[in-house]
Amino acid sequence: MNQITKKRKIKKTSTDFAFDILNYTFFLLFTLICIYPFYYLIINTISSNVLSANGAINFIPQGIHFDNYANVIKIRGLGTALWISILRTVIGTIGTVLASAFLGFMFTQQKMWGRRFWYRVIVITMYFNAGLIPMFLTMKALHLTNNFWVYIIPLIVQPFNVILVKTYVESIPASLQEAAEIDGAGILRIFAKIIFPTSKPILATIAIFSAVGQWNSFYDTLIYITEQKLYSLQYLLYCYINQANSLKALINNAAGTGGNVMSLATQQTPTSIRMSVTVIVVLPILCIYPLFQRYFVKGIMIGSVKG
Question: Which of 177, 205, 229 is at the close of a domain?
């Protein structure tokens, strides 16, 4: 095998080298294009607010300061909204992963009553729904409006996630379950001791989907929530972006009280408010994503292609 590999390396032609260079160049540029928006946001939040508002900061930060973050964090309601977003992300992700894992496993069991019928019912919901008004009326009838659990319960069962887990479980050798059944293990024990541990790649993939979806969601807050104590961080970002001019005046007035007038470079502008809040909202999920990255490709590939 080593000799064959060496021969293949020796036989590499100039065309192959040209292709490699072109390939690496393309993906390097693509990576830079993906990274630049985040870099642009960060350098504008730590640069002079006047230069940032005028669009003068594009590649190199100027007049570096960190007052934007210190002032934005003091905005009323931000801490509570952060806590709500963390709670909904953690609880919602755990609930979605457990529900998807168990349902996906059960739909592979021949002895499940009405297995094909219930599986089709779940799949159909991917293509049809009642609409916004019936959904709101249903949530209201269930007393979930102005309730924290409106963030969790409607999103626990996701048809696409169930399909991924079902396909993945079907790729696990049936002999593992048969051996456990011979030893007297029941369905729950088989799920907890065999299926769940061996399904880590696909479950980590689902965890990424769910966590990102929960963290980024603001539309459910807009529809179902009117109490400020239940606002999510993304919804506050939505409000702050729309009210950036008002917030700018409030922060500047608060920081300028007592005779301490802020320098022109650090005075808040609508641009600095928008960008600072955006970075605060995006950064946590951006830091968590790499932890699951090693499971992501494997989970998607195995979970989406049977066999």
Answer: 229
